[in-house]
Amino acid sequence: MNQEEFFKKITSHAKEYGFVFPSSDIYDGLSAVYDYGQNGVELKNNIRQYWWKAMVQMHENIVGVDAAIFMHPTVWKASGHVDAFNDPMIDNKDSKKRYRADVLVEDYIAKIEDKINKEVEKAKKRFGDAFDKEQFVSTNARVLGYKQEIEDISHRLYSLMEANDLAGIKQLIEDLGIVCPISGSRNWTDVRQFNLMFATQMGSLAEGANEIYLRPETAQGIFVNYLNIQKTGRMKVPFGIAQTGKAFRNEIVARQFIFRMREFEQMEMQFFVRPGTELEWFKHWKEERLKWHLSLGIPAEKYRYHDHEKLAHYANAATDIEFEFPFGFKELEGIHSRTDFDLSSHSKFSGKKLQYFDPETNESYIPYVIETSIGLDRMFLAMLSHAYTEEKLEDGSERVVMKFPAALAPYKVAILPLVKKDGLPEKAREIMDQLTPDFMCQYEEKDSIGKRYRRQDAIGTPLCVTIDNQTLEDNTVTVRDRDTMEQIRVNADELFNIIRNKIAPKRI
User: Fold this and answer.
1) Residue 507, SS3 per DSSP
2) In the predicted model, what is the mean pLDDT of residues 392-401?
3) Is 32 in contact with 262 (CB distance < 8 Å)?
4) Which helix (H) or strand (E) holds 138?
5) Count of domains for the chain
6) Same domain, yes or no, for 240 and 379?
């Protein structure tokens, strides 16, 4: 099964089992907008809560905020979004499809990286246990040639982007012989700038309405509340402010399911530090954020760092944590050293003093900022794509199981009476009532126990508890593990601790 087929299976499974639906599905949907179903919303909530606990609950010097989506228009002038929040756009004249010009080049680079990976895999098979990957990639002539090609293309692209040389970007696409994935042709339009802001009007009458924007990022809501939180919380540098919430971008290309949407959710933390210490804190949060991802038990090889060669105008360091999605390694989380750009700009445009008096150094300064920003929807897709597993069992049958980290699974336990009679449903309800205050539980009594197990596997429930006639005699139940399918007999009074231990997150 190739990656494209695999991705189609994931998207199909997501809809079939109540994770994600196209928005306005009964009207044939709305492009690049999705709704989260009954299982999807639980998974999404669990991811959000897992992040919040790690970021806020586990850090004494990080607090939360929930800023409004609507903000004063000057906020976006100060942040630079009104004048500079755009992407280079190019159309293929034959397919009539629109693309981000820089992404076309980056996808071309990704294909060269795939060639490197194939060379590594071939060498690994050839040398076996004696294979030294680091030595191979640093000495093999073909690999070195590919790496140099990547470096040359990247440097040229980022130089052109920095200079806003749209004609040069088109020339680069033509020089590389990049074709439209749909038509296979090289019949491109000129590259144009595409503004990503969503504008709307606020006011009771159309003629007197003020133009405002749907926020394209959540970070600015933190910056405009920096002073409020610092003073009311008596916060001392270094400290952080965290937020989760919706953002909106008029994307050029919104494809790959929920990877890139026009309405999405971010989980961000802005960490305010003393000037001169920002690169130390940047390194710290770069490492901490990768630890958080690894705490979910997903193999380390699914993640990688990507250090930015081209930096945003406000940054002096930037790194992406990339995840191996079915369509390749793509950005999952960004860590940026934003310097003092945002607070300085808001101080200038608002006329408000946003300096911090440091009692340790006896000086006033505008703090520098380290940003960690992860897309909740992308994290959802990462978990969905990693979890989807097709297994062939010993008896020749097959099952689809969603192997979510137990801490994130939509439901933690399914309560299943063996049959719908003999008092088993009543006993099952009694046990469920004891567990629901602490865990998301699902009750099922329809179909055979085997079919019910398969349904719970398909939505990723870590544990199934079966109530049978013996339960009425000695209060014991059968607990089935999702991943191993192992079944054990335990006293129903032990269920709370069993479930709690199963879903307990790892310390980071």
Assistant:
1) coil
2) 88
3) yes
4) helix 133-139
5) 2
6) yes
CA-wise closest residue to 386 among 21, 43, 32: 43
Whether 386 and 247 share a structural domain: yes
At residue 237, the 3 state secondary structure works out as coil
Same-domain status, 339 and 445: no
Q: 417 and 334 share a domain? A: no
DSSP string, 393-406: -TTS-EEEEE---T
Amino acid (1-letter code) at residue 44: K
What is the extent of the structural domain holding 68? Answer: 1-73+211-391
Q: Is 130's pLDDT higher than 70?
A: yes
* Joined tokens for residue 216: 């394209």
Of residues 456, 475, 472, the one with CA closest to residue 464: 456
Report DSSP letters for 72-114, one per residue.
-HHHHHHTTHHHH-EEEEEEBTTT--EEEHHHHHHHHHHHHHH
* Model pTM score: 0.84
In terms of C-beta density within 10 A (0-12 exposed, 13-18 middle, 19 or more buried), how is residue 251 classed?
Answer: middle
- Rounded CA-CA distance 119/117 in Å is 5
One domain for residues 239 and 276: yes
- CA 430 to chain CA centroid, Å, is 38
Do residues 342 and 477 both lie within one domain?
A: no
Between helix 166-175 and helix 101-127 the angle, nearest 10°, is 40
Q: Assess if residue 52 is contained within a domain.
A: yes
Q: In the predicted model, is pLDDT for residue 9 greater than 80?
A: yes
- For residue 318, give the 3-state DSSP assignment: strand
Band of the pLDDT at 506, cuts 50, 70, 90? low
Weakest-pLDDT range from 93-97, 154-158, 408-412, 502-506:
502-506
**Closest Cα partner for 464 from 484, 491, 482?**
482
Flag whether pLDDT at 208 surpasses 60.
no
The answer to whether 404 and 387 have CB atoms below 8 angstroms apart is: yes
Buried b (16+ CB within 10 A) or exposed e, 301-325: ebbeeeeeeeeeebbebbbbbbbbb
Residues 449 and 337 in one domain: no
Q: How confident is the model at residue 493 (pLDDT cuts 50, 70, 90)?
A: very high
Q: Where are the beta strands (DSSP E) in 151-260?
A: 192-195, 198-202, 210-214, 239-248
Interval 426-448 mean pLDDT: 94
